Amino acid sequence: SLPLCFRGERTTWLQPTTLDQFLRRKWEHPEARVVVGNTEVGIEVKFKNMVYPVILAPAFIQELNAVTHKEDGIMFGAACTLSHMGEVLRQAVETLPPHQTEVFLSILEQLRWFAGQQIRNVAAVGGNIMTASPISDLNPVLMAAGCKLTLMDKDGSRVVQMDDGFFTGYRKTVVRPQEILLSIHIPYSKKTQFVCAFKQSPRREDDISIVTAGMSVTFTPGTDVVDDLKLSFGGMAPTTVLAKKTASRLQGRKWGEELLQEACSSLAEEMNLDPSAPGGMVTYRRTLTLSLFYKFYLRVLQKLH
Ligand code: FAD
Fold first, then answer.
1. Model pLDDT, residue 206
2. 44: CA distance to ligand 1 center in Å?
3. Pick from 152, 170, 187: which residue ends a domain?
4. Nearest residue by C-alpha to atom 25 in ligand 1
């Protein structure tokens, strides 16, 4: 089928029908804005007076909507809507052994408080990642879970880990102008892994986060000794961040009172905010990182015993 093209006074709208057409267009127009659900770009155009002369709309390309069940997790095309992703994850939770679905359950918990149904029905998972907002509700849990992203340009693809190297600045990522996000791989959790995600916003329903968090701990099998810990926060810096110092301090420690004390003093130091940081509520945000960790600590403790 032929790609659609609409030309207006300010914008040309290109709707490629195949991945190959999309990649070629992005190569020809690296400055083109990719639009899927339009729930970020639409706000920029309407309220921030942004002008995008070329828009590329890949929402109907098969590869970008594919859901592939792999040996170690599920791969979602970047244009999968949040509602669709939620349905697939819910089904996986019903059919897989519980220890494999800790990450999925945490994502479902975030989706529950993510915007409203209308937005979730059109907003894509790739749109949330690529917006690289520091208060994204999904990026912290995707980061803590160790998700992998496949990026592609007309010459080939590369896979990058969704860690703190992926976000390079306020609303910036390592993705090059000619590249697109093809898919995201969300892993199954391991037998000794526990994952939680949290969102604190002024209002429960349909509100912007103050602080969001994704936390994952993996224990040495048969013990309560921390083998791997990832604590990811949104709303504490210009990008989604990992509390790496705290995580490495807690490695090899037993999940108990002493670890909790150490975690709180270390997080207070590491998740610092300048009094003039954008967004305000500095003391409250700093306190939230500790109280969300405390919640995580208790939930894991309950599951361990
Ligand atoms: P679009 O607006 O289509 O695109 C967003 C950005 O991603 C653009 O820069 C685009 O170029 C880029 N992009 C998209 N796909 C690709 C791709 N495949 N390759 C390269 N670049 C790509 N966000 C939250 O985190 N939590 C909320 O609770 C929340 N609530 C909201 C409520 C409302 C009322 C609105 C309007 C927005 C809300 N958002 C929220 C923000 C937004 O809905 C999400 O970020 C959503 O996931 C964006 O997806 P989209 O498909 O609409 O993105």
1. 84
2. 11
3. 187
4. 136
Instruction: Give the integer Cα–Cα distance in Å for 196 and 300.
Output: 9
Residue 1 binned pLDDT confidence (cut-offs 50, 70, 90): low
Calpha distance 249→242 (Å, rounded) = 13
Same domain assignment for residues 99 and 163: yes
CA distance 190 to 227: 12
pLDDT in tens, 164-190: 999 999 999 999 999 999 999 999 999
Segments forming the whole domain that contains residue 250: 193-304
Instruction: Compute the distance from residue 136 Cα to the ligand 1 centre, in Å.
Output: 9
Nearest partner of 133 among 34, 235, 51, judged by Cα: 235
Q: Are residues 172 and 198 in the same domain?
A: no
Q: What is the mean pLDDT of residues 241-258?
A: 98
What is the rounded average pLDDT of the residues 57-68? 97
The answer, yes or no, to whether any atom of ligand 1 lies below 6 A from the CB of 55, is: no
Q: How far is the CA of 296 from the centre of ligand 1 (A)?
A: 28
ipTM of the assembly?
0.99
At which of 164, 187, 210 does a domain end? 187
